[in-house]
Specification:
single chain, 473 residues, alpha/beta, Rossmann fold, 7-stranded mixed beta sheet, 4-stranded antiparallel beta sheet, 46% helix, AB_hydrolase_1
């Protein structure tokens, strides 16, 4: 009798597994079919929008504005350490060296969905970012849009575009003769024992820290440390120049000038979230002797297999062009479709005051207002270039940064990751641990990409204070 029951139980379990496998297969097939249909349609819509925006830009700004849809390339030659020459009819130069290697090829190499599936247009690694050595210097073949943006940079074109919000809070930076990032400083202002630099994530602002952690630090911490939370270039209340390429170097240089130099920071801790973790690693590599501790929340590190182009690999991990889950759909639209994502910014960011009001009414203020405001406080140019040049474009650099941190940065490294994070998978933090064995990984159960801080700010404030205390011991 017991043998019969065991056999029946085993059969039921086997049937349940088979049913689960069938349902999963049906789900995957449905997702694939819907993805083919939707993203093929979006490919067409993006082409149509490209033409419409060309017309609109010409109408509102009396000139054609560059985009990354065309396949035209130009050669840019770096002749020495201080000049960059553009090989057009006239020779242009920049006063400072532009790091062309930091311009991600994902900006202009984004094959249509059908072309990837059918293999009609096979993806050729590195075909659009070739490098050749000449007797003059290093020659890079880059997209013509970058050449046009360099011309705008030389001509001083930084004003917001017609499709960007023109309200006073969003354009206050454009009237300032000196462009520096917005920095919120709290804690001990005179001769602090140490400084703490807070770097927010993608499409966010310094309010992610100032509205959550700053009020919850103990009196002892506030009397010992100076807290510096920065709005990254292109986000929050910081400048959003229309001619910027928002490369990793530009972001890091602005942090150094606006925070480290302006506040005379010598010894400091870093607390960074998501995208900010990439900038934190870059800063740690540049200032290895000044870093007292490194705290990373949900670092977006995707180990790149050998023989694969890093930026393209990371783009497909971040934005897999799938209808489900919803986060993949949103990331795919933001990453793959230049003009559709610009339309989203036109409808939402340009009219952010209306959407902020509507959000408060609909949710009855249940959503933290600073999250909504931070989400809207950017331009399409800033979000688009930061997404590609920092998140995707650094795919081949993060491993070198982690190796340098492991070998040169002698400080405590702590990583926090929510177990329910559907934006950056937990495997990313585990991969960092594999690269830097001394790092401590803390998986916070039942928390996601945002609630890793919000909702547990008191506990996290205490954890940070302990980290800083142990680092200074």
């Amino acid at each position: 009798m017991s043998s019969s029951s065991a056999s029946s139980s085993s059969l039921s379990s086997s049937m349940a597994k088979s049913a689960k496998w069938v349902l999963k297969s049906i789900g995957n097939f449905t997702n694939e079919i819907l993805s083919i249909f939707l993203f093929s349609l979006l490919d067409i819509i993006d082409i149509v929008l490209c033409f419409l925006y060309k017309m609109a830009d010409f109408f509102f700004e009396s000139q054609w504005k560059p985009c990354y849809c065309s396949s035209h390339k130009e050669a840019i030659t770096s002749c020495d350490g201080n000049k960059v020459l553009v090989s057009q009819n006239n020779v242009l130069s920049l006063s400072t060296k532009l790091q062309l290697e930091e311009v991600s090829d994902t900006l202009y190499t984004r094959p249509s969905y059908l072309s990837e599936i059918s293999k009609v247009m096979p993806f050729v690694i590195g075909s659009t970012a070739t490098t050749a050595k000449t007797t003059v210097g290093s020659t890079f073949t880059v997209h013509s849009t970058i050449v046009e943006m360099l011309q705008d940079k030389i001509n001083g074109g930084q004003n917001p575009r017609w499709s960007d919000c023109d309200c006073k809070p969003c354009t206050r930076w454009s009237s300032s003769p000196k462009q520096s990032l917005y920095v919120r400083s709290e804690g001990l202002t005179d001769h602090p024992r140490e400084d703490v630099l807070f770097i927010h994530g993608f499409i966010s602002s310094s309010a992610f820290w100032t509205e959550t952690l700053f009020p919850n630090f103990s009196a002892s911490a506030k009397s010992s440390y100076r807290f510096l939370a920065v709005d990254l270039l292109g986000f929050g209340r910081s400048p959003k120049p229309a001619d910027s390429l928002y490369t990793l170097k530009e972001h890091v240089d602005m942090i150094e000038a606006s925070v480290l130099d302006a506040y005379k920071v010598k010894s400091f801790h870093i607390v960074a979230h998501s995208l900010g973790c990439i900038l934190a690693l870059a800063l740690a590599v540049k200032h290895p002797g000044s870093i007292k501790s490194l705290t990373l929340l949900a670092p977006p590190y995707y180990p790149v297999p050998k023989g694969v182009e890093p930026s393209q690999y990371v783009m497909r991990k971040v934005a897999p062009r799938r209808v489900w889950p919803p986060i993949a759909l949103g990331a795919s639209i933001a990453c793959w479709y230049e003009h559709i994502s610009r339309t989203v910014c036109l409808l939402i960011c340009k009219n952010h005051r209306f959407w902020e009001y509507l959000t408060k009414v609909v949710t009855r203020n249940r959503i933290e207002s600073f999250l909504v405001e931070g989400f809207f406080a950017h331009t399409h140019n800033a979000a688009w270039h930061t997404l590609h040049n920092v998140i995707c474009g650094t795919g081949g650099k993060i491993e070198r940064y982690l190796d340098a941190v492991r070998e040169r940065v002698k400080c405590h490294i702590n990583i926090f990751h929510g177990s329910d994070d559907d934006v950056v998978p937990v495997e990313c933090s585990q991969s960092v641990k594999a690269r830097v064995p001394t790092a401590r990984v803390n998986i916070v159960q039942n928390k996601d990409h945002i609630t890793i801080v919000i909702g547990r700010q008191k506990a996290f404030a205490r954890e940070l204070e302990q980290i800083w205390s142990n680092s200074s011991a």
